[in-house]
Amino acid sequence: MKCIVGLGNPGLKYKKTRHNIGFQVIDELAAKQKWKFQKGKFESHYIYERLNGEQILLLKPQTFMNLSGKAIKQAADFYQIEPQDILVIYDDLDLPTGKIRLRQKGGHGGHNGIRSTIDQIGTKEFNRLRFGIGRPKENLEVTHYVLGKFSKEELKDVQPSVQRAVEACEEWTEQPFLEVMNHFNQ
Q1: Can 45 be counted among the known catalytic residues?
Q2: Handedness of CA 32, 46, 169, 114 (dihedral sign)
Q3: Domain span at residue 22?
Q4: In CATH, what number is assigned to the domain containing residue 16?
Q5: Which of 19, 45, 144, 183 is catalytic?
Q6: What is the pLDDT of residues 93-150, one digit of tens each?
Q7: Does the predicted TM-score (pTM) go above 0.90?
Q8: Which residues are CB-contacts of 20 (< 8 A; sequence separation ≥ 6)?
Q9: Residue positions in the annotated binding site for tRNA?
């Protein structure tokens, strides 16, 4: 069984913000498969389905970004999912807008959702899909930037990359993560 987690903040206020790109990827994957989210377990919206013969759990923690690890741990404990079978999708200021990068492990890089995940599951060794949102160009505070929406110009790079991220998730249901990394990290 594999768990694919999109990080974000709950509520309409945060919908389509840069910080919620993980939710957007999960929403797009669910829409493509015509799946509906359920609520009530793991402090998350979740989908438990089969894709390409693999049992998967899609998860959108509703704990707010800084406590995302709590929801991930609850789901992983319930289904006995090992860290190497978890993929966390999140925004990354250090990548250009729309660039995706897959990694098998690493630090939190200042991202509080990843910090929470590492703290809760007790390891840095889980899969990640970093989704570039770039850095603010003006003297805009980082918090305001990540909680802002993509411009129309940025969306030209973001929308195809959301599709590419969905494809990476789908491919991971059939291929080892290292092969998926080699295919999508070009």
Answers
A1: no
A2: positive
A3: 2-184
A4: 3.40.50.1470
A5: 19
A6: 999 999 999 999 999 999 999 999 999 999 999 999 999 999 998 788 999 999 999 9
A7: yes
A8: 8, 9, 14, 91
A9: 14, 64, 66, 112
